[in-house]
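Q: Got a minute? One more chain.
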Amino acid sequence: MVHYNPKDWFGLIFKFHKSDTFRKLFWVILSLAIYSFFIVFLELRVFHSGFKTTTSVHSLLGFVISLLLVFRTNTAYDRWWEGRKQWGALVNVSRNFALKIKAFIPDSDHELKNRLFDADATYATILKDHLRNAPAEKLASCIPSEIKIRNLNHIPNALANAIQDLLLEAFKKHEISQAAYLAMLNDVNAFTDICGACERIKKTPIPYTYNIFIKKFIFVYIITMPFAFISDFGYWSVLVTIFTFYTLASLELIAETIEDPFGLDPDDLPTDELATTIYNNVQEIKNSQNGI
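A: Always. Here it is, folded:
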């Protein structure tokens, strides 16, 4: 995720970074400029047809396409923001679970306590890589060796299952009360709920038909634009066309970038930083001294 000062107006206006849409669209913009210039040149220098054009249709269609892009961008941002809320909840649940481990698990069972702390600290890292489609074997290698998992199909679930087994073991040994067991089990369930919510965001893209319709609409709108603006703007139609395309296509690209917020793009969520924060917070609670 890119860190920046939102109040630095002039710095942001003249700043370009690797995810800037202009870089991605450069060759398309260049091709469109050549196409537009060719259309205008033929009309003004070759055919001299003198046909009258109108921008009324494009003005009306521009309003329609702007509504579609607003909906597209808002939908993508909702997915990004929902992902951020889920990871914010993961931070809180991880801290709460660590505090309960510290309070409820007796110091006499040092091994069990360390296993639970390690599992809690590791879960965010496992989930982060799981959402990036890392191989199950790689995810399993990140789990501390003292924590035994049952399967390699879904590593976050396997780790949550291992935590439940550890809690059940402590409950059966009467090391924690039933109330403590149920309270800690709620946090484990919250881990799974957060994982499921993130998977829902990742695996449910915008409907295919809607996605290709927007792209087709933009394409037709842009390639017909030089014809509509020749009589009013002449060669300036080239600049009008490419600027309009850059605006519309950039909004679509931005929406595509943020609708899957768990990757490695500059505008994706800072899951690496959040996972590190969770790990450090859990370790801090683990190493803190008991007492007031």
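A: The radius of gyration is 27 Å.
Q: Perfect, thanks.
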